[in-house]
Amino acid sequence: MSIVEEVRKTIKEALPDAQVEVFDPMNDQTHLEAVVVSPLFEGKNLVARHRMVMGPLEEHFKTRLHALSLKTYTPKQYDDRKRNS
After folding, report:
1. Distance (Å, rounded) from C-alpha 85 to C-alpha 53?
2. Under DSSP, is residue 56 helix (H, G, I), strand (E, B) or coil?
3. Which residues is 22 bridged to in the sheet?
4. Above pLDDT 70, what percent of the chain?
5. Strand pairing partners for 14?
6. What domains appear along the chain, each with residue ranges and CATH number?
7. 19 close to 36: Cβ distance less than 8 angstroms
8. If pLDDT is split at 50, 70 and 90, which confidence band does 82 have?
9. How far apart (Å, rounded) are the C-alpha atoms in residues 33 and 21?
10. Average pLDDT, stretch 14-27?
11. What is the DSSP pairing of strand 67-73 with strand 31-37?
12. I need a surface site. Which of 10, 25, 52, 84 has the fewest CB within 10 A?
């Protein structure tokens, strides 16, 4: 399984209701980007949201993953963002 698939699976296990997209823009399998949309982010600040995603990924950072650029949204924020694009 690729690191992209592993990261996506780990996030989905931690946040089962989330929409998760993971990308490898540098095509190096160590610097990834993720967009995570979850109603569980409602009322949470950015730091809390990032901890909810990054915490479960700790083992990946110890082995294969070097960096993860992360964007987190509630469903409403994501819909508003898409509408304004």
Report:
1. 25
2. helix
3. 34
4. 100
5. none
6. 3-83 (3.30.300.90)
7. yes
8. confident
9. 8
10. 97
11. parallel
12. 84
Q: pTM higher than 0.90, yes or no?
A: yes
Location of structure tokens 């694009």? 85
Match 């990924």 to its residue by tokens: 57
Residue-wise pLDDT for 37-76, tens only, equals 999 999 999 999 999 999 999 999 999 999 999 999 999 9
Amino acid code (one letter) for 20: V
Token pair of 72, please?
A: 């987190």
Residue 32 and residue 7 in contact, taking contact as beta carbons nearer than 8 Å: yes
**Residue 79: what pLDDT?**
95
